[in-house]
Each structure stands twice: as C-alpha cells, then as structure tokens.
C-alpha cells in the first residue's frame, strides 16, 4: 500500500530531528520519568524472556496441587487447576503488553490518517467525519467496547480490535487539529501556490509535524489500554483459557479471595505496576516533547 | 456566542447523537452471535417455541424494520421491553439510574474534596516532595484496575476488619425509605430515618472510594495546572506586592479563578464516572445501571443495552451543555469575546 | 437557597452521620420469624409460564400450588413419587390419554378467590397459549377442560408415560385468572414482577438487584407456615455470601464453590448438607462434525479423560462417575453398559483405528457453572496427550445456546437435571434425533434403532418393558460414545444450624419448601 511508503519517511524525519541528547538530559532530570522508564524496560525484558524466567510450563495442570500457597515450589502459589501462578504472570504480561502496542499502533495509524485527511480536504467530508467521531465519543466507550468484543467473539485479538476502533476518534481529533494549524503556516501555503498535490503536502509537510503530538498521546494510551484490555478479560470478553492473562486471572481469583488472596492479588499488582510505569513514562515524555502542555 | 445559540447547537447535536448512538448500538447488538429468543426459551426448548418467542418479540422481522420500530418507540418515549426482565426498559432504568448517579456523584465529591487541596498544595509547592507525591497519586489513580482495587478494599474492610459491608446499597433488613429522589442517602434523611441513612452511607463508602480514586488524580492535576497559570498572573503579583498574606492570595484570589477551567474537567469526570461505574458496580454488587447493562449484554438483551447507551449518551451531552453554560456564566472573558 | 440554610443542612448531616454510622443493625440471626436466603443473581421473571431458570424458581415455586406435589418420606426425605396438592384424587383412562382430576376444596389465591377448575383450565391454556419454554414439558395437542366446578379433565393425543409428573413442574403452577385483567398478553408484564398464586407465600416486595420479600398468603389452604417473612438477598460474590452466612446475616447461602463449602463445614453454627441428586455433568461431542463424527475418535476421547482425576481434583471427591446416561438413583440404569475409564493406551489404539484426527476441535463453555472452566482446561490437557488440538471458547450463555442449536461446535460442557423422576428425562432428550440441538440432543446423535426404542418406551406404561427398552438403548449409546458421561454430584448447601425442616427433592434443585420450614431459637 502506498500509505506505508509514505509513512516511513516522515517518521525517519521526525526521529532524525529529535535531539536525543536533550531528551535524555530532560528524562534524567525527572526521577519519576526515569523510574517509570526503568520499570517499563524491566517488564518488557521479563515478559519477552518469560520462558527463561518461568519455573513451570504456564499451561501444565496438576489437579493434585490446586490452590497451593506461595512457597519455594510455586513462588506465587497455584491456581484452581494447579498451574503455577508465577509462570502464568510472566507469560500473561506478553498478552497485556502486546495488546497495548497493537491498539496504539492501529488506532494511532488509522486515526492520524483520517484526521489529516479530514483537515486537509475540509468541507463536507470534514464535517461528516468529525460529527461521526463526536457521536462515537459520546457513546459510553466501555459499553461500546464490550458490545463490539461480544460481537466479534471473545478473544484477546478481538478485544484489542474493539479497543482500537473506539480509540480512533481521539487520534482523529488530535491529528485534524494539528493539520488545520499547519495548513495555515507559510510553508504550506507556499507549497500550495506551487500547485503541490495534496498527497505531497500530506507527506512532506503535514505528517512530519503532527507525529510528535500523536506519539505523545500514544505513549499515554499504552497504560490505559493495558488496563482496558485487562478489564475486558476480567468480564470474560478478552483472553481465552488456557492462555494466561492478568485480568482473567484476577477474575477467576476473586472466587478464592478469602482463602487464597494471592491468586488475584499478584496478577492485579502486575497490572498496576505495568500501567503505572507506562503512564509515568508517557507523562514525562509529554512534558518534554510538548512543553505547551507541561503545566497540565 | 449567546446562551441560546449554544443551547440550540447542542440540542441539534443531541438529535444527531441520539440517531448515531441508536444506529451504532443496534447494529453491534445484532452482530453479537446468539439469539435472545433461545436465551429466554430455556433448556430443552424446541424450535417451535423459539420461533414463537421470536415472533412475540418481533425478532422475526428484518433488521431495518426492527430498527425503525425501535426508533418510532424511542421518539414516543418507549424504549421497548427488556428481553430478560420482560418489563419496560425505561421502568428498569428508572430504578437503576438513581443508584448509579448517586454513586457517581459521591465518587465525584470524594475526588474533588481530596483532589482540589492536593492540586493546590502541589502548585504552591511546585517541584517539592508534595508535588512529586501528588503526581504519583495521580498516575497510580489512572493506572489502578478498579475491579481489582474493589476486591482488595472488600477483602480488607469487610473480610478482615469487618467495618464496612461488601456490597449492595443498604442493609436489606431495613425498611427502604420512601422513594423521592431515588438517592438513598437523601431519601432516608427526608424520611428522618437515621438508621437507613447510616446504612446507605456505609454501603456507598467503598464503591465511591474505588471509583473516585481514579479521578482524584485527574482533578488534582487539573487544579495544579490551572493554579500554576493563575499564580503567574499580574493581579497575583499586585496582590502580593500589596502585602496580602500568601494564604489569602492562594485561596481568595487564585483558587476561584483556577476553578473555572476545572469545571470542564469535572463535567467530563462525571460523564466518565457514570459509565465507568460499570465495573465497580459489578464488583460491589451495586444495583445500578452498570450491573444491569453487563447482565443485559450477556443475555443479548439489546433493548436494555440500547436503553442504557441512549440514556448515558444523553446524560453525557447534557452534562457538556451544562458545563458550557456554567463556563459562560462564570467566566466574563468568554462572554466579552462573544 | 440562602447561605444560612446550607449551613443548617450541612450541620444536620454531619450530626446525623456521627449518630447513624454506628447505629446497630438487626441481625437475621436474632429474629426467629425471618429467614434469609442469599443467592447469586436476581430472578429474571416470576411468571411461571415464562421462566425456565431454577434461579427464578427459588422464588416462584413457593408462590404457587400445583395439582400434584412431590411426596416426602416419614423421615423427611424428598421422594420421587407424587401426591395430590390441589387435586384430591385423579383417574386415568386405560389407554392413558384421558386424565380426570377432582380438586380439593379450601384452597384460595392470595386475593381470597377460590382455586377452582376454571382457574386450572385458565392456567394451562395460558401456559400453552404463551408457548414459552415451560410449555415444552407438556405433550403437544393436550386439551384441558373444566368438567365441573371442581373437576378438570386433560385429554392427550397419545399416551405419555410421565404425564402425571409433569404436573409438579414449576410451569404447571396454577395462576389466578384475575391476571388476565392486568394487561395484554395474559398479563405477562405484570406477572413478571408480581405473584398471583395460592402457595404458602406471596410476594410482598422486590428491590431489583437487592432483595425480594415473601410473606404468608393469608388465604392459604394448607397449614399456616411458621416463618413470617422470607427474604431472598441478591449477593453476587460467592465470598460475600459465605461471609454473611458466617456472620449469621443469612441462613442459607446458595451456589458456593466446592472449596468454600469444605472450609465452611467446620465453622460453628453452620451445617453443610449433602443430598444425593440426579444432576449430572457431561460433555457434548458433536456427532455431526469431523473428527467427532467418527465413533472411534469419540471412543478415544472417552478413554482419554481422567474421570477420577476430575472428581478428586476439581470436586474434592464429592461426586461419582456416571455409568451411562441414566444417573444413580433413577430407575432403569443398566450397569452392563460400557463405562469408560482413563486408559491412554486404549485411547491411542482407538484413535489409530480412526486414522488419527488433525482438525481443530472447538470446546465451548460458559461461566454459568464455575466448575466448567476447570473441566474444560483439564479436558484440553487430557486430549493433548492424544495429540488432539482443542481450542477453548468461553462464551456468554446465550451465544453458547445458539451454537448448540446450529451445531457449530466440537465439544461443550453441560449440566442436566430432570424435571421428573423418569429415565425419559435423560434418554428421550439426549438421543432422540428429533431433538437435535438446544432441545436436548446436544450431541446431534442419530441412530434409527435408538429412535425406535425411544418411541416404543414413551407410549408404554409398563415399567418392566420400558426398563428393558432403555437398557438396550444404554448399551448402544455408551458403546457409540455419544457423550462423555462425566459425573453425578451431590447437591450441597450451607445453612445455619437453626434452620429446620428443609426437604431437598432432586427434581427441585434450588427450591426450598419454605412453608414447611422453621427456625429454632
């Protein structure tokens, strides 16, 4: 698809423009951002190398060792069919992190293009697109996601698609707003007088300039997407057994919370730590890349 | 822009939202594989019984016809009958909506009562430990899975300490106060029933805390941002130069002005809380719309799901309208521009 | 409002909070006239002609009376035979198609109206006319007619062996004809949320999602019930139900997980009661889709499941493996039928005969029964030892039912409990090729010989003959491994030890005989 070729260059351009030294200097100044980033790296490392760190096969059942308490044999105990919770939490992180990145990439990509398109074309197309986005935004998002996930059939990938679809309007708004601003700038109007095609303007002028706010939003979205995906799994619309997933583990564990509190406590804690780390990092990066918003 | 203009534009948008929301939810509900008729036909149902129910509910008609019929009803204020409870959806929502609103408002109260002082403190002592602390609280708030936090507070305050009840709105052994507002805490006070009030208050504490915790940070961050902006304004410097105490400057001069932009955030937060209550209600067995809609989705009860979405979307748009109007009323600058 | 008012309100509220928060709340335990039952979810509808859910029947069954009721033995055990409730006597024609019931006098609806033949005729016509789930239990073409003030005659198109027992179903509850005036469609909307019966209790309150209240029917024809108020509390979390039971806030806690019941048994003041039940858990094997359409694949699967491992590991030993489709305690069970056991060698052999199976097999379950998920996970693990590729799908119950009916699945979990004590409830539903799908034959099993046996058995009223017919059938369907017959488990319920007089009947799961129960002090 031509879109793909279009997008490679602007990203490169943006990345080449970033002053990495300055960014690192700013991150170092903020202990919370640094801490968040470090935890993100640790989580990524742990889940990518889950097979190395896991002590058991996450799907191996042992009905004779059900609901065992945390100990040396099972660090975080076992679940209701005797699977090792520590290993399942490691593997479960893969689902959460993968969903986070998937949603942000898909929603960010589609949203950015639709928004830039609407802003560039203007007129009726713009009005129709934006009203549609307004309507989608006023539908209760969780219910929309739940209904969509149920319609697509319960699976983690469908839950991710549902979340991505509902997230698109946010990126459309950001990208359209930036496009409108940039359109009025002198270098774009100059290009227009030279009869540059819309595609050319989109590729060389608009996209490179809207990527920065979009990326800030994307980083912030990672944390909330991980939360949302686990919430869907919690109500049974996400990951399917026997795949380990944090939200689903909390859901099953709630039945045992009185006698085996660790069952839902540990996976829930994993969600909390991961989401917090991504949010701290996103928050910090926003402050640095988007100084206008810094005060917020 | 005048008040009337704003209202007119918002009402036009409302019609659009109503139409859009019903189309979207109707389409999606009907995409969910499964036949509500089979659901209520029960085990052992023969195809004839299923067909019979389908006809009774009008499910045998083509989808566009079903949609038009539905829309026709909605325009006349009839949201159809719930497939699950067999009762008018509006009747069900009338029972469940006040419970959700009471929870959302209490959560909002909790979030602002703690969020505003935290925000102020964090602006006044910018980059000091308190500021970092508020930031951590804020980020933790939006990063906590509410369904999990709910379980933990139940385990602690009910399971271990036995201080607070685990779920429901009121002790079921108590007589329910006469329904006036549908808010148990208010109705019980109106009835002069202190025991009922105490029980309602005890029941709402944990869910409201769980729900409000997420928004506490959002409010604090917004207040902090607005305060920082105000504290840099000329009038503050003038006030300081005139020898006003720091306390007075912060609370009588800067805070009232900083609250104006925060109204938007509060309005949005209320909207979020209304449907964010879905998960919290499930965990706390709070008999509100959230639990109702989750059960309805599971049972493919799409009249109920649509009724919920329409009502919440309407509330969302109306809250936004209210926010805009309040904004115009309190902020002289906006009125002057128009 | 003026400022000063605000201060007064806030001040009053503050004082109230201080006083009210610590106000003592009456405990259920201290009140001998109130019985509290905790269940997991709100009833959906209370109309006996509409509800097909045991969860609703907890409330509806004591609100209504039926022509016949299940008998209770001298020592307080629920029997599978019936005695008259509204009916005093009845006769059946020799060919079993005409049944005449004489009604006992003195029974009245809660509004005082007499329960007469017209009410019985009305109730059955309403049931069949609405044509919802509960109507299925009664033979098609059944005619009901008041042949006297207090006499009703049922005319069937052909003999139906278990007919008398169907009259004890929840759906056969006699409804006050006055509901007709409550609205369209035989007053269904009104009756969904109200009661109009002649049972020992009547519904006096329903706070949606919170609790329902039943109080004695002042015009009840039987002995005045001892308990003055029954409250059904809706408490979704199993953990919360258990804690409330421990605290004495509720007397009976329904549907607690096995693990919690074991922990509860040793607590003071709580009794975990076990009753033999006819409820079975089994797996549907879709006989219509590959590879399960191959009988040897089904045999391989049946031999690859570790029945005892599931019973010990998931049920904590509280169950027995089924021996064919008819459970222990029901007449007609054939002990000579094949009973599979966990034997990987013979499973692999059977799979070799079938030539292997490479297709992905979907395995459906829902959260309706918390045991289904561990069973699904365990079965997937067992079958992977055979190299079978099983994909688990947890669905909403409604979606799962759709798939049963359209046959788009491989394996699925199911529970089955009979409405009346006749093997018919198992054999005719599970194996009749006319009942493919949701109607009961969830395995989509077809066998002409079996169909013939079923047809012969249903019109015969000779128990010995029927036993022989069903015996032959069981040998066929177990050999052909139509289902995986997993286990039959006891009905277990946790109650406070001051609850007396509860009679469990295996036909009436989740139903309590409130009218005969009492609370000791």
UniProtKB/TrEMBL annotation, chain A:
Q: Where in the cell is it found?
A: Cell membrane
What membrane topology is annotated for this entry? Multi-pass membrane protein
Q: Which domain of life is it from?
A: Bacteria
Coiled-coil ranges per the record? Answer: none
User: Which ranges carry the ABC transmembrane type-1 domain?
Assistant: 97-282
Cite the entry's keywords alphabetically.
Cell membrane, Membrane, Peptide transport, Protein transport, Transmembrane, Transmembrane helix, Transport
Which family is it part of?
Belongs to the binding-protein-dependent transport system permease family.
Q: What is this protein called?
A: Peptide/nickel transport system permease protein
Q: What lineage does UniProt assign to this protein's organism? A: Bacteria, Pseudomonadati, Pseudomonadota, Alphaproteobacteria, Rhodobacterales
TrEMBL record, chain B:
Keyword check for Transmembrane: yes
- Annotated membrane-spanning segments are 12-32, 103-124, 136-158, 200-220, 265-286, 306-330
- Domain ABC transmembrane type-1: from-to ranges: 97-327
Its membrane topology is listed as: Multi-pass membrane protein
Cellular compartment(s): Cell membrane
- Pfam families the record matches: BPD_transp_1, BPD_transp_1_N
Q: Which PROSITE patterns match?
A: ABC_TM1 (PS50928)
- Read off the Gene3D superfamilies from this record: MetI-like (1.10.3720.10)
> What UniProt keywords are attached to this protein's entry?
Cell membrane, Membrane, Transmembrane, Transmembrane helix, Transport
Main localization of the protein described in the UniProt heading: membrane
Query: Which family is this protein grouped under?
Result: Belongs to the binding-protein-dependent transport system permease family.
What is the protein's name according to its record?
Answer: Peptide/nickel transport system permease protein
Which organism is the protein's source?
Shimia sagamensis
Automatic annotation (TrEMBL), chain C:
Where is this chain's protein located in or outside the cell? Periplasm
Query: Signal peptide span per the entry?
Result: 1-28
Where would I find the Solute-binding protein family domain in this sequence? 82-434
CDD domains under this entry?
A: PBP2_NikA_DppA_OppA_like_7
List the keywords (alphabetical): Signal
Q: What family, per the record?
A: Belongs to the bacterial solute-binding protein 5 family.
Q: What is this protein called?
A: Peptide/nickel transport system substrate-binding protein
The species this protein belongs to is Shimia sagamensis
């Amino acid at each position: 698809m031509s879109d793909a070729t279009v997008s490679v260059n602007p990203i490169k351009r943006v990345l080449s423009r970033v002053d990495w030294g300055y960014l690192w200097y700013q991150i170092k100044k903020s202990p919370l951002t640094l801490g968040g980033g470090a935890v993100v790296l640790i989580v990524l490392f742990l889940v990518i190398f889950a097979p190395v760190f896991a002590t058991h096969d996450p799907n191996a059942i042992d009905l004779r060792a059900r609901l065992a308490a945390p100990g040396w044999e099972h660090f975080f105990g076992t679940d209701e069919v005797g699977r090792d919770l520590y290993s399942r939490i490691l593997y479960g992180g893969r689902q959460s992190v993968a969903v986070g990145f998937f949603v942000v990439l898909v929603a960010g990509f589609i949203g950015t293009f639709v928004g830039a398109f609407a802003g560039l074309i203007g007129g009726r197309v713009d009005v129709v697109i934006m009203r549609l986005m307004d309507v989608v935004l006023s539908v209760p998002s969780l219910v929309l996601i739940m209904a969509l996930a149920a319609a697509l059939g319960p699976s983690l990938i469908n839950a991710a698609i549902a979340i991505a679809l509902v997230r698109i309007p946010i990126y459309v708004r950001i990208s359209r707003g930036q496009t409108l601003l940039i359109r009025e700038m002198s270098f774009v109007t100059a290009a227009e007088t030279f009869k540059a095609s819309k595609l050319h303007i989109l590729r060389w002028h608009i996209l490179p300039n809207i990527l920065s706010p979009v990326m800030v939003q994307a980083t912030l979205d990672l944390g909330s997407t991980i939360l949302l995906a686990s919430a869907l799994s919690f109500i049974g619309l996400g990951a399917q057994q026997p795949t380990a997933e944090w939200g689903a583990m909390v859901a099953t564990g709630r039945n045992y919370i009185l006698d085996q509190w660790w069952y839902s406590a540990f996976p829930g804690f994993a969600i909390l730590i991961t989401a917090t780390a991504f949010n701290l990092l996103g928050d910090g990066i926003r402050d640095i890349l988007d100084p206008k918003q810094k005060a917020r | 822009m005048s008040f009337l203009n704003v209202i007119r534009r918002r009402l036009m948008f409302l019609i659009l939202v109503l139409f859009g929301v019903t189309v979207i939810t109707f389409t999606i509900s009907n995409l969910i594989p499964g036949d509500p008729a089979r659901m209520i036909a029960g085990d052992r149902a023969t195809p004839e019984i299923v067909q019979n129910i389908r006809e009774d509910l009008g499910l045998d008609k083509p989808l566009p016809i079903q949609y038009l019929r539905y829309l026709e009803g909605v325009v006349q204020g009839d949201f159809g009958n719930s497939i699950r409870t067999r009762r008018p959806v509006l009747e069900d929502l009338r029972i469940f909506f006040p419970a959700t609103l009471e929870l959302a408002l209490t959560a909002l109260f909790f979030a602002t009562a703690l969020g505003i002082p935290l925000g102020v403190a964090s602006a006044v002592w910018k980059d000091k430990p308190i500021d970092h602390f508020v930031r951590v609280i804020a980020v933790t708030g939006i990063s906590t899975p509410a369904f999990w936090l709910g379980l933990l507070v139940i385990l602690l305050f009910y399971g271990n300490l036995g201080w607070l009840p685990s779920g429901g709105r009121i002790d079921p052994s108590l007589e329910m106060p006469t329904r006036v507002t549908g808010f148990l805490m208010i109705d019980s006070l109106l009835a002069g029933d202190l025991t009922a009030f105490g029980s309602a208050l005890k029941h709402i504490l944990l869910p409201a805390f769980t729900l409000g915790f997420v928004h506490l940070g959002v409010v604090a961050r917004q207040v902090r941002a607005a305060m920082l902006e105000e504290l840099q304004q000329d009038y503050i410097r003038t006030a300081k130069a005139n020898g006003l105490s720091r306390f007075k400057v912060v609370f009588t001069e800067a805070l009232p002005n900083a609250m104006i932009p925060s109204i938007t955030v509060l309005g949005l937060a209320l909207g979020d809380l209304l449907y964010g209550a879905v998960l919290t209600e499930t965990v706390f067995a709070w008999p509100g719309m959230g639990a109702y809609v989750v059960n309805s989705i599971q049972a493919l009860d799409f009249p109920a799901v649509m009724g919920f979405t329409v009502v919440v979307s309407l509330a969302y748009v109306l809250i936004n309208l209210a926010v805009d109007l309040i904004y115009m009323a309190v902020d002289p600058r906006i009125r002057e521009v128009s | 409002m003026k400022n000063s008012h605000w201060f007064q309100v806030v001040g009053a509220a503050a004082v109230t909070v201080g006083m009210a928060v610590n106000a003592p709340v009456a405990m259920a335990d201290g009140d001998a006239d109130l019985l509290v039952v905790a269940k997991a979810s709100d009833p959906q509808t209370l109309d006996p002609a509409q509800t097909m859910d045991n969860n609703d029947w907890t409330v509806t069954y004591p609100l209504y009376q039926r022509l016949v009721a299940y008998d209770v033995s001298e020592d307080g055990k629920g029997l599978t035979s019936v005695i008259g409730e509204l009916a005093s006597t009845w006769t059946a024609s020799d060919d079993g198609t005409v049944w005449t019931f004489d009604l006992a006098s003195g029974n009245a609806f809660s509004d005082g109206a007499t329960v007469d033949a017209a009410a019985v005729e009305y109730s059955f016509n309403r049931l069949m006319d609405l044509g919802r789930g509960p109507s299925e239990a009664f033979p098609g073409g059944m005619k009901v007619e008041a042949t006297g003030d207090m006499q009703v005659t049922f005319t069937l198109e052909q003999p139906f062996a278990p007919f008398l027992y169907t009259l004890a179903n929840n759906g056969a509850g006699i409804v006050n004809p006055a509901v007709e005036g409550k609205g369209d469609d035989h007053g269904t909307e009104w009756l969904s949320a109200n009661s109009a019966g002649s049972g020992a209790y009547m519904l006096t309150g329903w706070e949606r999602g919170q609790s329902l209240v039943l109080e004695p029917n002042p015009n009840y024809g039987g002995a005045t019930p001892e308990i003055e108020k029954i409250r059904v509390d809706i408490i979704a979390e199993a953990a919360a139900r258990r804690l409330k039971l421990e605290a004495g806030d509720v007397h009976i806690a329904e549907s607690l997980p096995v693990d919690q019941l074991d922990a509860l048994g040793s607590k003071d003041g709580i009794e975990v009661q076990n009753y033999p039940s006819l409820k079975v858990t089994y797996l549907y094997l879709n006989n219509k889709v590959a590879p399960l359409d191959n009988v040897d694949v089904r045999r391989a699967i049946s031999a690859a499941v570790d029945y005892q491992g599931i019973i010990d590991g998931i049920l904590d030993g509280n169950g027995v493996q089924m021996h064919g489709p008819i459970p222990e305690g029901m007449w007609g069970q054939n002990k000579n039928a094949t009973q599979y056991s966990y034997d990987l060698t013979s499973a692999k052999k059977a799979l070799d005969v079938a030539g292997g199976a490479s297709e992905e097999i979907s395995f459906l379950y829902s959260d309706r029964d918390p045991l289904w998920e561990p069973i699904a996970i365990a079965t997937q693990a067992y079958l992977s030892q055979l190299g079978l590729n099983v994909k688990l799908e947890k669905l909403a119950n409604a979606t799962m039912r759709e798939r049963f009916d359209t046959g788009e699945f491989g394996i699925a979990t199911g529970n089955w409990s009979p409405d009346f004590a006749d093997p018919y409830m198992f054999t005719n539903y599970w194996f009749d090729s006319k009942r493919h799908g949701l109607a009961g034959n969830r395995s989509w099993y077809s066998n002409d010989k079996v169909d013939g046996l079923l047809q012969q058995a249903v019109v015969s009223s000779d128990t010995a003959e029927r036993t022989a017919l069903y015996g032959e059938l069981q040998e066929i369907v177990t050999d052909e491994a139509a289902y995986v017959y997993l286990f039959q488990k006891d009905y277990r319920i946790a109650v406070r030890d001051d609850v007396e007089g509860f009679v469990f009947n295996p036909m009436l799961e989740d139903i309590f005989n409130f009218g005969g129960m009492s609370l000791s002090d």
